[in-house]
Amino acid sequence: MTTLAWTDKLVLNQPTLDTTHEEFVGLLNAFGHALDDGADALPAYHALLAHTEAHFAMEEDWMARCGFEAQNCHSSQHAMVLNVMREALRYATELNDREPLNILRTELAGWFPQHAEMMDAALVFTMEQRGFDPVTGECRETVAEAAESHSCGSGGCA
Question: Does the reported pTM lie above 0.85?
Answer without folding.
Answer: yes
